[in-house]
Amino acid sequence: MRKKASLLARLGLAGLLTLGLEGIINKAEATRIWVRDIPQGIYTIQQAINIASPGDTVIVRDGVYGYSENPLYRENFPIVIDGSTQSHEGDLTIMSEHGRDYSEMENWNGAPGVVSIQNVGNELRLQGFSINGLFSPVPASGGLIGINIENASPIIAECSILNNEKAIYGLDADYIIQDSNIITVYAPSGRGVVATNYSNPQVRRN
Question: Mind giving me the DSSP string for 10-30?
Fold first, then answer.
């Protein structure tokens, strides 16, 4: 009986070691992708998102991401995060290097939104950005929606979402907003967080 118990204990330990090794291997396979990593030729946030694999982390260096005289650095909006068409499959963290006071997305090209998130679960995390729609009450100005979320449940953390007619617009979206600032502008249809068509957002510590 003692020998059997000892064998089971060894098998249990072997199983734990195997699970631990698998965790280490999976963690090692995940990659940090640095935006504005010149040697790697990664100049924009969208470029980094497009090449990311499941479990990767995109780290965005300090700066304003928007218009640049150099087309390599020019960020066109909206930035699209789509778990059904991009290789990361919605398992991705996108975060600034030093927080929202140092990394800003600036909607220079008058797009109807700054960030579009679709077809992802809560494995998608967007963290530490100032998301500036550059709203002006002129139809051609753009900057209507800060973050547009459709059929998705991402986590939005430590962001400042400002100068948008609607800061966050959710359609079939169960997203989490935490530790963030939402600053809208006056407009006939101005809103902070809009939840439509069975959306169920959670707002935490904002």
Answer: HHHHHHHHHHHHHHHHHHHH-
Global confidence as pTM: 0.81
The burial of 115, by beta-carbon neighbours within 10 Å (0-12 exposed, 13-18 middle, 19 or more buried), is given as: buried
Q: Which of 169, 35, 152 is nearest to 83 (CA)?
A: 152
Residue 14 in tokens: 């072997």
Q: Classify burial at 199, counting beta carbons within 10 Å of its beta carbon; exposed 0-12, middle 13-18, buried 19 or more.
A: buried
Question: Is residue 47 classed as helix, strand or coil in its secondary structure?
Answer: helix
If you average pLDDT over residues 146-166, what whole number do you get?
A: 94
Q: Output the CA–CA distances (angstroms, integers) from residue 1 to 6, 8, 10, 20, in the order listed.
A: 9, 11, 14, 29
